[in-house]
Amino acid sequence: MSSPASSPRSSAAQRRKDIETARQQMLELREEMVAIPDSLQSLLDAAHPNFRESARNLVHYLHMRQQDLRPLQMRLSALGLSSLGRAESHVLATIDAVLEVLHELGGQRWEPGEHLPTVYDFAHGQHLLEQHANALLGPAEPGRHVRIMVTMPSEAADDPRLIHDLLAQGMDCMRINCAHDDAATWARMIKHLRRAERALGNTCKVVMDLGGPKLRTGPLEPGPAVLRLRARRDALGQPCQPARIWLHAEDAAPAAPPEDADGCVPVPAVWLGSLRSGDRIRLTDARGKRRSMEVVQTGKTGCWAEAERTLYVAPGTLLRRIPATGKSTPDGPPHDAAVGALPATPSALLLRAGDLLRVTRDQQPGQPATLDANGKVLSPASIGCTLPEVFDDVRAGEPIWFDDGKIGGVVEQMESDHALVRITRAGLDGEKLRADKGINLPDSDLHIPALTAQDLIDLEFIAANADVVELSFANTADDVEQLEAELRRLGRPDLAIVLKIETRRGFENLPQMLLSAMQGPCCGIMIARGDLAVESGFERLAELQEEILWICEAAHVPVIWATQVLESLAKEGLPSRAEVTDAAMGHRAECVMLNKGPHVLEAVRVLDDILCRMRSHQTKKRTLLRELRLAHGLYDIAPSEGKQGKHGKKSGKHKKH
User: Fold this and answer.
1) Residue 424 contacts residue 375 (beta carbons within 8 Å)
2) Is the pTM above the cut of 0.70?
3) In this structure, are strands 407-414 and 399-402 parallel, antiparallel, or unpaired?
4) Which residues are 399's β-sheet partners?
5) Most-buried pick from 267, 428, 539, 586 (CB within 10 A)?
6) Cα separation of 543 and 360, whole Å?
C-alpha cells in the first residue's frame, strides 16, 4: 500500500523551512563576502578609477567561489529563484536581489544595512565590461559585439592591399608578433593600416605582441645537402605529373621562380645560357639511379625543366646536356655541368617511448643516438636548450614536453651540464624532434623574467606606435608590475596591456595578475590555448578556459579567444566541423584572434558570419530565447487546432487532414 501524500500544511511548512534555510545561508555568504581584509583592501585602493568597482566585484566573486555552492544552488532553484550561476559581472547585486525575494517570501523586510549596500545594479556590470572592451579593442562592428583580431604575416609589410581587404572584411585589431620581422617591417604594416583606415573610414587597433622568453630546442647537426625532386603518380602508380624544376645560375643571387617549383637547382651560368627548349639533361642521381629531365621553357633568370621520375641531386651531381637537335659544335658551350651548392636538409631526432634523451645546457648541435652493431644504444640522443638557466629550477621526476605536446617525458636525472629525460609519450611509430621546437616544464618553478633584453628594445617601438602591448608568458603579478614600470619609464603609462595566459603558473596566478593590471587604465586577457593545453593537459583545457572567462567577466576585463581558431580554413581553405563550433564558443569572449594563412580573408568573412549569428543566441553564459524558427512547426504535427500562447501570438497553423 502506497504511503499517503504529504498534506498541504506539511508541504507549506517544508517550503517555509527551505526559505528560511536559504535566507540564512545567503546572509552568511553576504556577510563573509563584504568583510574584505586589509591586505585585499590595499589592492582595491590601488586600482585605477576605471577599475575600482570592477576590482571589488572580482574580490566578491572570488570569495563566493571559495566554497561549494551547489547545495545552495539546488535549494534556490527549487524555490524558483536565481541559482547564482550567472552572477559574474554583478555579484553583490545578484545576492541582494535573491535576499530581497527570500525576505519577502518569509514575510520579512530586507535591509542591506551598513555592510556595503549594493553599489550598482545588474546592467552596470555589463556596462563596465563593454566600456573596458571598447577602450581596449575599439568598438565592435554593427551586428556583432565580438571583435576580430588578425595576426599579420611578414608579407603584409609589402602588400598594402591585403591589409586594406582585411580591414574592409571586418578586422577590428591588427596584431603584430614581435617574435618575427623587425621594426622597419612593423612600421610598414602600420603605415598600410593607417592608409586603409583613411580610405575606408574604419578604425583598427594596433596590437603588438612581445616575444617573451623562448624556451626551445637548440640546433641539430645538419642533414646531407640533397634535394628530392618528386614526380607524382596516380592511384595505379602511373606517372601523372612531372617534377617541376627551376634551374638558375649558381654565381648570382638566386631568382625566385615565377611560379611554384618542386625544387631549385643551381648550375653554372654559361651552361644555363646554352639550354634550349626541348634539350634533355641526363644524370646519375645521388642514389646511383639513371634519370633525365627535359627543358620546357627558358628565360632571362633561369629555365624550367620537367622530370617524369623522382630524382635526388646533390652538390657535384653531373648534368649532361643533350641538344634537341642531336647535334653540337666542338667549340660550343660545354655539354657537362655540376650542380652547385645546396642547403643542408633539416635533421631530426626520432624518439620513441622508452628512449633516453640528453637535454644539454649548451648550444652545441644535437646528435642522434649512437648504436653498436647489434642496435644497442651506446649513448642517447642529445639536443640543446635555448634557456640554460632553467636547469637551475628543474628537478628529477618533473614532466617535460616538446613540440606542442607531441613528445612527452620525465626528467630522470639532473646533472650540471644536462638533464636526462625518459621519453614516455610519442606516436606509435615515434615522433621526430627538430630544432627550434617549444619546451614546456609545467611542474617546474621556473624563475624566468617575462621581459627579455630584446623585449625591452622592442618595447620602445611599441610605446611609440601601438595601441596595445601583449605580455607573453605572464606568470606572476611581478611580471605585470615590471611591464608597467617600463611603460612609465617610456612615458606611456596609458598604454593598454594584455596578459597572455599560456602557462599553468599564469593560470593559477590570474587573480593577482588581474588586480595588478587593473592598476592601469586599460587591460585585457588573452587565452593562449596552445601552450596552456600542453602545460595543463589537453583534457583540462576546456575547464581552464571556462574559469578564465568567468573570472575575467567578474573583473569586467575583456578576453581575447586565441590559438588555432578556424586554422584549417585560414591555411587550407576549408574548416573542420570542430573548428566552427570552437569559433562559435569564442562569442563568449570580447575578441577572437585569427592566425595568418593564405585564406585568412575567407576566415575573417566566415568568423564574422558565425559571430553575427551567435549574437542572438548567446551572451556570456546566458542563453537568449529569440524566436525559434523550428518551434513554428509545432502545430503542423499536432492533431488539434493551434492555440494562442499566454506569452506570445499563435505560433503555427493547423493543417486540415
Assistant:
1) no
2) yes
3) antiparallel
4) 410
5) 586
6) 35
Cell of 390: 632553467
Question: What pLDDT is attached to residue 268?
Answer: 94
d(CA 517, CA 526): 13
| CA distance linking residue 468 with residue 190, whole number of Å | 13
Residue partners of 58: CB distance under 8 A and separation at least 6:
511, 514, 515, 551, 554, 555
Return the HEC string of 82-116: CCCCCCHHHHHHHHHHHHHHHHHHCCCCCCCCCCC
Q: pLDDT tens digit string along 500-536?
A: 999 999 999 999 999 999 999 999 999 999 899 999 9
Q: What is the pLDDT of residue 469?
A: 98
Asked if residue 64 has pLDDT above 80, the reply is yes
**With bands split at pLDDT 50, 70 and 90, how would you rate the model's confidence at 242?**
very high
Does residue 212 contact residue 473 with C-beta atoms inside 8 Å?
yes
pLDDT at position 33 over 90:
no
Please check whether residue 411 is in contact with residue 420, taking contact to mean a CB–CB distance below 8 angstroms: yes
Closest CA to 265 of 338, 193, 325, 357: 338
Backbone φ and ψ of 2, nearest 5°: -70, 150
H-helix or E-strand containing 610? Answer: helix 600-614
Percent of the chain residues past pLDDT 90, beyond the cut: 73
* Alpha carbons 295 and 271: distance in angstroms, whole number: 13
24 burial level (CB within 10 Å; 0-12, 13-18, 19+):
exposed
CA nearest neighbour of 523 among 590, 448, 464 = 590
* Nearest Cα to Cα of residue 361 among 223, 217, 535: 217
pLDDT tens figures, 287-315: 999 999 999 999 888 999 999 999 999 99
Answer yes or no: are the C-beta atoms of 244 and 296 closer than 8 Å: no
CA distance linking residue 404 with residue 382, whole number of Å = 19
For 159-171, what is the mean pLDDT? 97
Cβ pair 141, 135 in contact under 8 A: no
To 5 degrees, how large is the angle CA 551–CA 553–CA 559?
95
Identify the CA nearest to 507 among candidates 459, 464, 540: 540
Q: What is the mean pLDDT of the chain?
A: 89
Q: What is the reported pLDDT for 622? A: 64
